[in-house]
Amino acid sequence: MKRTALFFGSFNPIHVGHLIIANTMLQKADVDELWFVVSPQNPLKERHTLLADHHRLQMVRRAIDDNYRMRACDVEMHLPVPSYTVVTLAELSERYPDREFCLIMGSDNLATFNRWRNYEYILEHYHIYVYPRPGSEHCALADHPHVTMVDVPMIDLSSSYIRGLIAERKDVKYMLTEPVYQYLTEMHFYE
Predict the structure, then answer these.
(1) Reduced to 3 states, what is the DSSP secondary structure of residue 87?
(2) For 45-74, what is each residue's pLDDT tens digit?
(3) CB-based contact 47:76 (threshold 8 Å)
(4) DSSP 13-67
(5) Which residues contact 104 (CB under 8 A, 6 or more apart)?
(6) Among candidates 100, 137, 128, 104, which has minimal Cα distance to 24?
(7) What's this model's pTM, rounded to 2 decimal places?
(8) Which residues, 6+ apart, have CB-to-CB distance to 121 below 8 Å?
(9) For residue 49, how many other CB atoms are within 10 A of its CB?
């Protein structure tokens, strides 16, 4: 069975920080491949700042086009909104019985994981690889046997920061891959 890590996010836009995390997870976590699951709506976030789903999916595809171990996944775009991870995991497990799925999340998400729908079920049936996030402290769930902390470079870069810079007409070229930068520039996103 292929061990497939799922990296959920709005990727609004996907940036080099996401890619560094993903690449490091492929090197250090016990996984064969990594899928970026582009979420139409996080139940804990507002939707009004999101680009259309197909644009965010396109940016992910452009960002990882040259990496055969990474894939853009649109499964949540075909599920009811808001997106719940437990529902997505059930759907993917049914579609791909030849894969063992695990999750990738930041330590900030692990700290609020007990607010997720059916989080106990997820913890019991799926492994979670956690990367450090600035300002996050150790939480009790980090000691769970299905949680593995992975040493990943801590990069204090966010999509909201990038969107803010673009709105201020500042250059974000080196925060994005060249194909994503070109796509954003051509489409005049976040201006």
Answers:
(1) helix
(2) 666 678 999 999 999 999 999 999 999 999
(3) no
(4) T--HHHHHHHHHHHHHSS-SEEEEEE-S--TTS-STTPPPHHHHHHHHHHHHTT-
(5) 5, 6, 7, 8, 21, 22, 25, 29, 34, 128, 129, 130, 131
(6) 104
(7) 0.94
(8) 86
(9) 12
